[in-house]
Design a protein that fits this description.
This protein has 2 helices and 10 strands, in the order H-H-E-E-E-E-E-E-E-E-E-E. With about 180 residues, it is of the alpha+beta class.
C-alpha cells in the first residue's frame, strides 16, 4: 500500500490562502493533474513516434542562391500535420505548396501540410515541399542539412522530429509541369 503525504500543491495555497478543500480531495486533484500531465507527455511522444520520414533530400544550390527546397516522404499512423520546420542553414524554413495557375507556377507558404493516417505524403519538386529561405551557405552535393520538423496531432499537441537530409544535384528540366 502506498501512503500519500499531504504536501500537495493547490492554487489557493500558492497565494497564501488556506484551502477549504479536504486533504484527500487535494491529493486526488493533484493525482488527476499528474495523470493529465502523463497523458499529454505520452501523446507528445506518440505524435513524434507516429511519423515516419523516408528519402529526405535537399536540392543543391549555386553560389549566391538564397533559397533551396527540401523534399521527403512522410507517413503517419495517426492523423497529424506538419506545421513548421527549421534548419540552421537558413534564416527561415517554411512548408510550401506549388500550384499552377494559367500555366504559371506559383509557390506559397502554407500553414500546415496534412498527414492523413496511414497515407504517405510526398514532399517533392512541383508539389508540397519545405522552402529554406535566406540560406547561409552554398549547399553542395553530398553535404548534409539538419532539419527539424514540427508536427501537430489532432489534439493540438506539437512535437519535433530531427533528421539530416542529403544535398543532391538535380538535372535541369526534371521538374514536371502539368499539361
Amino acid at each position: 500500500m502506498v501512503k500519500l503525504q499531504q504536501c500537495v500543491f493547490h492554487p489557493a495555497s500558492a497565494f497564501g490562502r488556506k484551502s477549504s478543500m479536504p486533504s484527500y480531495a487535494r491529493i486526488l486533484r493533484a493525482g488527476g493533474a499528474a495523470l493529465v500531465f502523463m497523458l499529454v507527455s505520452d501523446t507528445t511522444a506518440a505524435a513524434a513516434d507516429a511519423v515516419k520520414i523516408t528519402a529526405p533530400w535537399v536540392r543543391a544550390t549555386v553560389p549566391g542562391q538564397s533559397v533551396a527546397g527540401a523534399y521527403m516522404e512522410l507517413t503517419s499512423n495517426v492523423p497529424t500535420a506538419l506545421v513548421a520546420a527549421d534548419s540552421p542553414v537558413a534564416r527561415k524554413t517554411e512548408p510550401h505548396a506549388t500550384t499552377f495557375d494559367g500555366g504559371v507556377m506559383k509557390m506559397r507558404a502554407v500553414e500546415r501540410i496534412e498527414l492523413p493516417a496511414n497515407e504517405t505524403v510526398v514532399l517533392k519538386p512541383g508539389g508540397y515541399h519545405l522552402m529554406l529561405v535566406d540560406i547561409r551557405r552554398e549547399l553542395k552535393p553530398g553535404d548534409r542539412v539538419p532539419l527539424t520538423l514540427i508536427v501537430q496531432d489532432r489534439n493540438g499537441v506539437r512535437s519535433t522530429l530531427q533528421l539530416d537530409a542529403e544535398v543532391r544535384a538535380v538535372a535541369a528540366g526534371t521538374l514536371s509541369h502539368p499539361k
